[in-house]
Structures are given as C-alpha cells and as structure tokens.
Write a structure and sequence with these properties.
The protein is of the alpha/beta class. It has 2 domains: about 240 residues, Alpha Horseshoe (Serine Threonine Protein Phosphatase 5, Tetratricopeptide repeat), CATH 1.25.40.10; about 130 residues, Glutaredoxin (3-Layer(aba) Sandwich), CATH 3.40.30.10. About 60% of the residues lie in helices and about 10% in strands. The chain is built from 17 helices and 7 strands. The strands form 2 sheets. The chain has a 5-stranded mixed beta sheet, covered by helices on one side. Helix 1 packs antiparallel against helix 4, helix 6 packs antiparallel against helix 7 and helix 14 packs across helix 17. The longest helix is centred in the middle third of the chain and has 24 residues. The chain is globular.
Amino acid sequence: MRAFLILAMAGAVLLGQSQLPPQEQQDLSNSLAEAGNSSHEFIFALENHLKKYPQTKSRWELERALVKAAKEISDDGRTVKWGEAVLARESEDILTLEAVTRALVRAGDKASAEKALVKGKKWETVLRSLEPKDATEKIRWQTRMDLDQGLSRALQAQARAQLILGKAAEAEGLAEKSFASYPFDETARVLAQARGMLSKWDAAVDAWADAFVSGDAKRPDDLEAMREAWKKGHPDAKGAGDRLLAAHDRFNKWNEAKITRLRQYDANALKGKPGEFVITGVSGEKLPLSSLQGKVVVLDFWATWCGPCRTQHPLYEKAKEKFKGRTDVEFVYLNTDEDKSLVAPFLEANSWSKKVYFEDGLSRLLNVSSIPTTVILNKRGEIASRMNGFLPEKFVDMLTERVQRILAE
C-alpha cells in the first residue's frame, strides 16, 4: 500500500510539471524514476530538486508532496519542516494543520507542545468555520461526521499538548470536549491521564473504561490502567466491573444518538446493506428496498449528462420485456446527478418513464465509481452480479442471462 501511495504521489507530481522549463522537468522526471517506489528516496529526490531549483514554479506542490511522504513514513521532523512551509502559503490547509500538530505533539517536549497548541487551535478554528451557518444550510451526513471527528482530533491534540506542559485542568477540559464531539479511545486515554494528574481517581477509572469500550488496539493496557486508578481510591477490586458495564451503556447510548443525529441529514446514514435503504422517487415517493426482498433486483445507475446511459436505456427496456409478467424480478432506475432538479425535465424531454429514483447513497455503499453501472441483487438482497459499462451489441443477452442465472440459484 505504501509503495502504491508513493507511485501515485510521484505520478501526481509529474502530472503538474508541464509548465516547468524543459531541463528542470527532465531532471525531476529522472530523479523520481530513480527513486522508484521508495518513500525515503522519493523525499530525497524532491529535497534535492528544491536545493537545485530553489525558485521553481512548482515549489508549493513539491512541498505538499513532501509533507504527505514524510507523514507516510512517520518522519515527524520533516512533516513539521515542510508542513510549516506549506502553511506559510496556505494557513488554513486542514490536512497539513493536522499533520503538523500531531507531529509536534509526538515530539513530546514543551517547546513543541507550545507550537502544537497554536497549530491545534488554528486547526480547530478552520473546522468550526466549516459548520453550517444555520438550519437551512444542508450538508451530507458524511461531512457532518467528518467535521465531528476532525474537531475531536483537533481538541485531543491540544489536550495532549497541555498534558506535556503539565496543565492537567486545561487538558481535562479539552479532552472532555473532544470526547463529546466524537468518542475516540485515544481521547479517553488523554482524559484519564489528565484526571489522574488531578487525583480524580473515580473519574479517571471511568475514562479508562471508556477507552476500553470504544477501542480495541490497547484494551489490555486500558484495563490495567483502570485497575491501577481504581486501587488509588478503593481498598479492593469490588465494583470495578460495574464501571465497565456503565461505560458500555454510555457508548451504546452515544452510538444510538449519533445514528439519530446523522439520519436527520440523511435517512440512509450508516446503513450497511442495500435492503436497509429507503430511496426517493423523482416525484417524492419513497421506496423501501426491503419491500423488494424475495425478488431479483436490477439496479441501473445513470445520469442525465451520461451519453452512454442514453444509449443503454432502450436496451434496459428490451431486457425488462424478457421478464414481463414475472413478480420476482424488479428493475430500478437510479439517478446519480448532483443537481436533482435536472432529472424531471430530462425525463420529460426524452419521454422516459418517470418511475425513477435517486440513488440516495447507494452508489457509495455499492462502490459505484463510474456510470453506467448495473448491479444485480439476489433474492436475499445480496450483490450477485455487476456490470461496469456495457457492450451495446451484447447487453440485452448478457443482462438477461445473468438475471436468469440468479433466479435459478
């Protein structure tokens, strides 16, 4: 995976170098070719290029690539060095703010912690600026969750920096806000450590229990830390188990509240199976896909701007005719346009049936990355076949054969 990422970054760097002088472009291409898929050599090549061509027109792009590469190999020194250079040009770059803040915190010394507080606060401020201005501003549920998680990480980094500075009360307050935004297990550990420094042993026990429940990477360590905190305020181990059970209840309640909140933005948020989705028709009607359980369902993902989709549509109609009269086969047309207002006029202008639904998140769930795409679900609601694109001369026969095969299973 790391080799693939480096090759992708190298390709992106080369793609953006068409405006460079021929000799510089050739030198950069040669250096990156020699670096191969080595992260360290990739960094070495870019740093050498910047030394040789300090006034290069691509300095900003190269510095951004260096931040990504340094982060990939956990080189915190270089992450900070090149990240600071990027932020000097673009102070609100969220990804770079996060990378630099985290690297400074990991340094562990007070001077770095002070810098981390500044960068972390800036990171937090930028994230808060992306919040909806009022209830009328719509955002995707994924964006809502990304903002919650990002804010939690920004506050967590600040809390960790305050711990390094010995400011336990400040760390506790920041960690509490972080955990309220999104309950990462690492945030619970920071909170537990802050409360331990303040000799709030019962509260520290609860935080260690929250860490145990909300994560699994360090569960043995979390449990041992919880036991040690419990011993500080209690003569024996009685009652500690109840704290774990209470933490489980807290986490379950938070998870239920999270789902309820996200489904205010999208009724299909966090649903993991096609049959759980409710999709919306062009005229506003709702179709629970659970109502199609027991049928073979053909999902056609298309868009108004997609030329091949227009060619494919009458072929779908021909395939659909093959199953006329059957009650166990259903064809569902799913539009993927960003601008939904374009769809009804398109259907009218092209004399297409208005029995069309919006994909409402199914594209993401089913990994539909190009259109036209056909996904066929079996009678249990599971993916049984997929067709990315189509062959016009064979499409009707291919689709018919696949549906028949799935019916016979």
